[in-house]
Amino acid sequence: MPPARPIAFPLQVLSWLGNQGTRAIVAVLIAAIAVPPLGELTRPYVTHAIFLLLCISFMRVDVAMLRAHLRRPLLVLTATGWTTIAVPLLVGSLARITGVDAALPDLYLALMLQATASPMMASPALAALMGLDATLVLITLVTSTALVPLTAPLFAYVFLGQTLSLSPAALGLKLAAILAGALVAATAIRLAFGIDTIRRHRAPIDGFNILILFVFASAIMAHFLADLVASPFRMLGLAVLAFAVFFLLLGTTMLLFRSVGRERAMALGMMVSLRNMGLMLAATEGAIPGTTWLYFAMSQFPIHLAPQLLRPFAERLRKPLPSGETDHGLISPASE
């Protein structure tokens, strides 16, 4: 028994960290900002961190849940089309109409990379923490992520042209390689340990996930304090824009999908507004301009803070409707 103790203690620490829920997400951001030197150490490992986050997400996919939602494909297909095709088309068209592409090319690049990215792999977990329909988010996330190696190069060709250092074909190949590699690794882990073992160790896996998020966040936020001191108004403007984009995507999605129920509409809104910019960063190997990098950094604030801020709103949505009213066939995660 003594040899098990060195392993048991780290597992307990990871379990405690994993049980902190949305508080840990906020703490990750604060810690990443508070210790800038760590960012310089972790920056070379951003791609590795994104790959591990993808592996963990694929590893935990519940195949039975996926099949259940595939029996009702219309909502999934509609949500997939909205987040994968309509959102980048709208963002790109709006940027061109307003002249942002010509006036602020680096910011335009950031917005297009954000719009063409798939939803964050952590979206189902965040939806579950907020008591929303995580299974719907999960299946839409899987379908959207599968399409990104095809749609991202297309939109890069149409809207970005030579703005991106990578060719659209190279971007698609890198995205496909990262996603396929993570899927293969996750499948190997599932076969080796079994899905039941993975479920039993949910808390320590969540804790490990948070540590990897810290690696990514610290790399992204490495120069935040220095940039804030040097250009406070610029940073404030990027922060306002990042929150505006987040809530615009959230609100528009909730409005478009309100007919499927308040909870599901919010779950889809959270998924669409939480874009996996880390995946795009990994695919481009960090070869992006300074303003693009800064916008990615400021976008971490709505990503990390919104789940905590919106949780009370999500709890209100889950309250029973007045007698005689229905919520268009809403099914809670527990009932599935």
From TrEMBL:
Provenance organism: Bradyrhizobium oligotrophicum S58
Keyword Transmembrane recorded: yes
Presence of keyword Transmembrane helix: yes
Name of the protein: Na+-dependent transporter
Segments passing through the bilayer: 21-39, 45-63, 75-95, 107-129, 136-159, 171-193, 205-226, 238-257, 278-298
InterPro entries from the UniProt entry: Na+/solute_symporter_sf (IPR038770)
Alphabetic keyword roster: Membrane, Transmembrane, Transmembrane helix
